[in-house]
Structure formats: structure tokens, C-alpha cells
Design a protein that fits this description.
Layout: H1 4-26, H2 31-52, H3 60-72, H4 79-97, H5 105-127
Helix pairs in contact: 1-2, 1-5, 2-3, 2-4, 2-5, 3-4
């Protein structure tokens, strides 16, 4: 990476790729994997947002905490997006590591549109 802007753009590209992978997996009905990809789409986008604002986070939990502290609690970004990102973080843990746990279509499909809005909101704040 040449500079911070390259890294931010790389993370946004990864966010879009993860989201596109989630969309592709709908036809396979791979609900746990879709949740994983939706979470990572948000994680990559938030990582880019934190980088843009020179905010450090070293872990997934740290990324979530810094996002909440600097953007949700300050009302720069609507609470619904903080709730969505937190929910996806919890869902990813359950879907990736929970024994005998499978998401259902009706749990996952509403998240797809919500994540699309989340990504748009994050990109808007990066461009400010």
C-alpha cells in the first residue's frame, strides 16, 4: 500500500466484494456463510471509516467498540447501523463457531438490504 487512501480504498473494495459474495450465496441458501460475508462487508467498511478518521482498532471487538464510541454515541451515524453491526458480529460468532446452529432464510434475507444501506452510509461518511 502506498498510502492511507490506498488502504481505505482497498478496504472498501473488500467490503463490496464480501457483500457481492453474500448476494451470490443466496441462490445456494448458505445462510450461515451469507451472515459471515455480510458481517465482513460491514467490518471492512468500518475499518476504512476508522482509518479515514485516524482511529485505531486492533481486533474485531475493538473495531466495533471504536465505531460505537466515535460514530454511534456521537450521533454521526444512526443507532440502527450500530445495532445492525453489533447484531451481525454476534450472528457471525454463532454461525461460524456455534455447534448445531443454522440460520434460516427469514432471519437472513432482511439483513441483505440493511447491509446495503449500512455500506452506503459508511461510504458517505468516508467521502466527507
Amino acid at each position: 500500500m502506498n498510502n492511507i487512501e490506498d488502504y481505505i480504498n482497498y478496504r472498501l473494495k473488500r467490503a463490496d466484494e464480501a457483500y457481492d459474495e453474500a448476494i451470490f450465496l443466496v441462490q445456494k441458501k448458505s445462510w450461515n456463510t451469507i451472515v459471515n460475508r455480510l458481517y465482513y462487508a460491514c467490518f471492512y467498511a468500518v475499518t476504512a471509516l476508522l482509518l479515514k478518521n485516524k482511529i485505531k482498532a486492533n481486533t474485531h471487538r475493538g473495531t466495533l467498540n471504536q465505531f460505537s464510541l466515535h460514530f454511534i454515541k456521537t450521533n454521526k451515524i444512526d443507532m440502527e447501523y450500530g445495532t445492525l453491526y453489533s447484531q451481525l458480529s454476534d450472528f457471525r460468532q454463532k454461525g461460524d463457531y456455534g455447534d448445531m446452529f443454522d440460520f434460516k432464510e427469514d432471519q437472513v434475507t432482511p439483513l441483505i438490504e440493511q447491509v446495503s444501506g449500512f455500506l452506503s452510509e459508511i461510504k458517505k461518511h468516508i467521502q466527507m
